[in-house]
Design a protein that fits this description.
Shape: globular
Number of helices: 2
Structural class: alpha/beta
Strand content: 35-45%
Order of helices and strands: EHEEEEHEEE
CATH architecture: Roll
Distance between the termini: 34 Å
CATH topology: 2,3-Dihydroxybiphenyl 1,2-Dioxygenase, domain 1
CATH superfamily: 2,3-Dihydroxybiphenyl 1,2-Dioxygenase, domain 1
């Protein structure tokens, strides 16, 4: 099979709010936008936001590796997101994981390289 493109799509009740969150927190660059969908590039990957979401909490499987999970979690909260699992030290190492929710209810994960 010839794959021409790969992207991951999440749902949003408010696409503009979702776009603002991902551009501010993760430095996403909008590459396509219309009334139904916004596509953004993040670290060479494509995240697509589709309108029509209900705002209910939904596990996405999206994981963002960042150098500092504590600082990243603080940025998510400052941008209107939430934490469902605060960063916790493990085995005398700095935290490597934070479970988060974007303003649209999409659950995402922050990790640190180990």
């Amino acid at each position: 099979m010839l794959v021409e493109r790969f992207k991951y799509t999440i749902w949003a009740a408010d696409m503009t709010r979702a776009m603002k969150f991902y551009t501010e927190v993760f430095g996403a660059k909008v590459i396509k936008q219309n009334a139904h969908i916004i596509e953004m590039e993040i670290c060479n990957g494509i995240l697509s936001i589709h309108g029509g979401g209900e705002g209910a909490k939904t596990w996405t499987g999206l994981t963002f590796q960042v150098p500092d999970v504590i600082a990243g979690a603080a940025e998510i909260v400052a941008a209107g997101g939430q934490l469902t699992r605060e960063p916790q030290p493990e085995d005398d190492e700095p935290p490597h994981l934070a479970m988060c929710v974007d303003p649209e209810g999409n659950e995402i994960m922050l990790t640190r390289k180990r």
